[in-house]
Amino acid sequence: MIRQPNPRSRQKEARDEDLLALIEPLFPRCRGNVVRLQELLSDEYHIEVAYSTLTRLVREARLRTPKRRAGAYHFEPGQEMQHDTSPHHVILGGKSIIAQCAALVLAYSRRLFIQYYPRFTRFEAKWFLTEAVGFMDGACPTCTIDNTSVLVASGSGPDAQIAPEMVAFGKVFGLTFRPHAVGHADRKARVERPFAYVEGNFLAGRTFQDWPDLNAQARAWCQQVANAKPKRALGMSPEAAYVMEKPALIPMPPYIPPVYQSSFRVVDVEAYVTLDTNRYSVPERLIAQTVEVLKYPDRVRVVYQHHQVADHPRLIGRRDGKITAPGHHQPLAKQRAYRGPAAEEQHLMGHTERLDRYVGELKQRAAGRGVARLRRLLHLKRTYPTDAFDAAIEQALHYGLYDLGRLEGLILERVAGDFFQLGDLE
Fold first, then answer.
1. CA distance 311 to 293
2. What is the structure's pLDDT at 133?
3. Same domain assignment for residues 196 and 218
4. Pick from 55, 60, 67: which is nearest to 30 by CA?
5. Tell me, what DSSP letter sits at residue 47?
6. What are 303-315's pLDDT values in tens digits?
7. For position 207, what pLDDT does the model report?
8. In this predicted structure, what is the pLDDT of residue 367?
9. Residue 158: domain span
């Protein structure tokens, strides 16, 4: 007996074919996101489709690239460590900011160390790696990284050229930086995977006062949580595996050079130097002089002619800040509002009633305390005879004459004959 096709089955197949005709052009627009595909079908075609149905159609139509079988990397103790960075949202000082999380992992024991920075340049890279190697109390000969320009000068993957200053830095600890091939980020999966764990565990529900507080808590979390928790792949905690890996690490060098960055600045007219948009004071005698500014992880030092002239705490994660050290700047000689009569007025007053009146009228017509005019009036009084000066003052008061140039003319009219002894010229 031949079975007839089920009408419902035919309707379902026809409906799936119609849906697939709509899904195929929409799928690239949604970048493979089936949830977004469900929303577009509802918004643009007013078709409501269950999520499970969409995933089935996508799977049957092979719209996604089939997943490839994943392999595994095996590392011996002390063979390799891996380094990478990732941006994270952090609550710092009551504000949500994006901070760069730098991480380093020992590939064998999976021992983790993280720190945060406002930005991640070669200066921060050397700063972080110095602390990370110190945290591990040793280094592996190979440090796998991505193809970031922070460490790579040119090229990519095995053909990449590491920046010369980073090559020299690596020699201090006996390590070599090795970028993975482009598109093979799984090569450093040991350091890639913990970033989600950091965001979901360390940052969840935590707030931080400032950058030192953030990094102090990050270090404590690495010791007390991340490296103390047993891992199924290891069968033990990273801290326990580290005990076995520690003898294989390259020992710490007897001397670790300090991490710093040198730059030259001209001291501005306010006796400050600018570094990373922030200003640091120097002695004001160095205005317009060229000084060397040394940026350390937590300090800023200023050197002039091989002598240190300033030492400040470094402003991290701030813009347009300013630090002034005591003793660097003398108080500016600001004009103060004087009280009481000027010295010139005191010398003029109290001699005659006419002169006192003239001084009062002169002050009313002058700006401020009228010191300049009173000084010239005092000069006239001391220069010419008293009788001529008093007579000229009386005449000037009578006519309301307060131009000191014309007052001197009145005095000269009275002393022209006897004071200067003018005679006939033959």
1. 10
2. 97
3. yes
4. 55
5. -
6. 999 999 999 999 9
7. 92
8. 76
9. 80-248
Residue 356 and residue 225 share a domain = no
First and final C-alpha spacing in the chain: 163
Predicted confidence at residue 151, as pLDDT, reads 93
**Are residue 94 and residue 205 in the same domain, yes or no?**
yes
367 token code pair:
């700006």
In this structure, the answer to whether residues 126 and 178 fall within a common structural domain is yes
What pLDDT sits at residue 426? 44
Q: Look over the chain and give the mean of its residue pLDDT values, rounded to a whole number.
A: 88
Q: What is the DSSP letter of 117?
A: E
Q: What's the pLDDT at 154? A: 92
Together in a domain, 100 and 236: yes
Q: Are residues 134 and 241 in the same domain?
A: yes
The token duo for 330 is: 């003398």
Evaluate whether residue 336 is within a structural domain.
no
Q: How confident is the model over 156-183, as pLDDT tens digits? A: 888 899 999 999 999 999 999 999 888 7
Q: How many helices (H) and strands (E) does the chain have?
A: 14, 14
Half-sphere exposure of 84 (CA within 13 A, CB side): 23
- Which parts of the chain register pLDDT below 70? 1-9, 67-71, 333-339, 417-426
- At 384, the amino acid letter reads Y
Residue 150 lies in a domain: yes
Please, what's the b/e burial string for 239-277 (b: 16 or more CB within 10 A of its CB; e: otherwise)?
bbbbeebbeebeebeeeeeebebeeebebeeebbbebbe
Contacts 24+ apart (CB under 8 A), 261-267: 261/123, 261/294, 261/295, 262/292, 262/293, 262/294, 262/295, 263/292, 263/293, 263/295, 264/290, 264/291, 264/292, 264/293, 265/290, 265/291, 265/293, 266/290, 266/291, 267/291
Which of 348, 406, 410 is closest to 375 using CA atoms?
348
Instruction: Tell me which of 271, 291, 323 is where a domain ends.
Output: 323
Residue where the block lists tokens 């050397």: 126
Count of other CB atoms within 10 angstroms of residue 59: 12
Residue 186 is predicted with a pLDDT of 78
Is residue 149 within 8 Å of 125, Cβ to Cβ? no
- Nearest Cα neighbor of 102 from 205, 218, 209 is 218
Q: pTM for this structure?
A: 0.66
**What's the confidence (pLDDT) of residue 354?**
86
Number of structural domains found in the chain: 4
Residue 12 in domain = no
What is the dihedral sign for C-alpha 136, 139, 144, 146? positive
